């Protein structure tokens, strides 16, 4: 494999053979002055991953550039491991995965196939445009994606297999790489590594803290019932109607309300209408979850967990977005002000851009491959689906124009989608 | 000593009952209980229990009459399991669909889940109108649905080979399929639910079967507005897209030859379609000169341009989806999506019927008659019973009639069934 390719896809197993051949050792990366640039690139890689959510392609002209690029991946993993921070591990693996997926779209199918195999995805090349995947692999990789276009029932299942186009297979590979990296990290690190990267580790930790603060502060202010996701609304209404909620439901609702800033008394008042209300027991349980008695503040479950616990009720179009993984994100996004500009692009309304001479109603996006009406374009999972920004964020989701774009059907979801752009983390 | 033991059993039984359903305490008839236990012990001593796949990775659970379910049992091999069965004579025995690192550990956390078979359970509850049927009719209907599940879905759409699917009669009112292919082991609940959805085609948003194409986009004050054509799936599309297409085409073809009144009545019968909508659908599809009806346009263009109103089009699509649902299969969702469930041990006796959980080949299903083939042939001789209720039933190919308070001699296997059904006592 070309060194350039290895540099672009540094998680490939061939990389370690290449490094071995080049005589690079772990010790030398950490200590030798000659590798300072690799260490710097590694620091940059991790900061980009955390702040921009995607790793930019550095200009590479020589074989040394390629080598350092590969090493930056190894360094970044050491830094992440040194912090041991779960949140960073998740963000970092997401960014690596997203970058891979975007870079792969420029590659030919043979190569995509090769990478897929290295990620243990069992696919075979069916044609120049399609790959064949067993439905169990498909389910495993698509199950975190909740948008309806991934539902098995809508797939053309044929004797256990289905066909995926390049964009879809890349999206599944993104999931696979994310799972792989986040399961590999943290790696064991020694004091020397921690010492070498201390400045970066400190910086990253500061950024992480900032992010966590931001999340707490900015996310939720006054409690708004209108912004609640359907699951919470339904559970809340059930309580008001005096119906009993299952334990997992109470837990989710309590942790959720607590996180968006409702105090114990407020939450208790809601439960007071419950048929089996016992104020002492309820207070004990609520305080346990809110952390006022246990010291551990529980966060509400993710969408995925709630689905498997059977307490995901009536998901709406916003819930069904690929990237919607947590009821708190829903609440945050619903709370974002909608400015005029965003409203304008609301009516994208056109799956393919085909038949729409005006660039699908989103003139800005059209001119701007990275979706620069959005300063954080790279943060944007939409953008991820649409690296070329094919002029139309809608169309990007839908390469064949094959109308699986339920998103178009209501204005609201579009708006939500725009709102989400600078928000999703 | 013996008397004491019996007393304890009675007390325990009462406790369980009062906790559970507060009904009147059952009358335990000791000779009947002993007869049942004798039969079960004879069965487990002599009958052949099929090998349990990965036995040492499974959790076992059992219900001994009068006690609550005992779970968290693990066995190393078949002889150990068989010893347990012969010694305890449980009324019901189950094993986990899951594989565990330590199946015998006392809590679920400590077991360490390694994966689970993909299980399908189809019983009489899922058959529409089952309440009206006799037991034998019900079983026959379940079998038809079960064969469809195996052949069209598990082996058809999902592509499993016959050797990957264990097929069992449950001993009660239905059938189980255990898919043991390694590819399914790690699937989580959500993923298994997707499989069930594929089989049962629940009410759904139809748009996933169609593609939408804008053909008329207008812009006004920065807002753009588009009209769409709804393109139908390819005629050779696989999965439900293809089935939906065929069902739509069949409807259109037939409709061109049917009379108006019939079509409209059929449309109105569908939930959500009123008289007005039915008229609209009819005229959009079938009115006009034969070559130029909406139906022939749809067939020609493979798209749904015939409808100008979204509401009417969606009603019509929903109507076709409902018709397509005739091709859907049946299976019990919670059983399939539960990755830690216990399922009846193949080869074990069912404590409410006395039938054994029979392992079957796909080719045997057609001929299989649970009321003959799952009665163990090893029970010998006759047993004298006294009816506790009037009861008529079919078993081993004959019709039996017992009367309250009348004594009669029955073949032991039949007597066992009647005793378990609580329709007789043994003196």
List the main descriptive attributes of the protein structure presented here.
heterodimer, A: mainly alpha, Transcription Elongation Factor S-II, Chain A, 3-stranded antiparallel beta sheet, 22 helices, 3% strand, B: 427 residues, alpha+beta, DNA primase, PRIM domain, 4-stranded antiparallel beta sheet
What does this structure look like?
- The complex is a heterodimer of chains A (425) and B (427).
- With 425 residues, chain A is mainly alpha-helical.
- Chain A has 2 domains: 1-216, Up-down Bundle (Transcription Elongation Factor S-II, Chain A); 336-420, no CATH class.
- Helices cover 54% and strands 3% of the residues of chain A.
- Chain A is built from 22 helices and 3 strands.
- Chain A has a 3-stranded antiparallel sheet.
- Chain B is α+β, with helices and mostly antiparallel strands.
- Chain B has 2 domains: 48-197 and 332-375, DNA primase, PRIM domain (Alpha-Beta Complex); 206-327, no CATH class.
- Chain B has helices spanning 2-20, 30-46, 78-88, 108-111, 135-157, 189-200, 239-255, 260-268, 275-286, 294-301, 310-324, 333-337, 362-365, 370-373, 412-420; strands spanning 60-63, 70-73, 92-96, 98-100, 113-116, 118-123, 165-169, 174-179, 211-220, 223-231, 342-344, 358-360, 382-387, 391-395, 398-402, 407-411, 424-426.
- Mean pLDDT of chain B is 89; it is low at 1-22.
- Classes of the chains: A mainly alpha (425), B alpha+beta (427).
- Chains A and B meet through α8 and α16 of A and α6, β9, β10 and α7 of B.
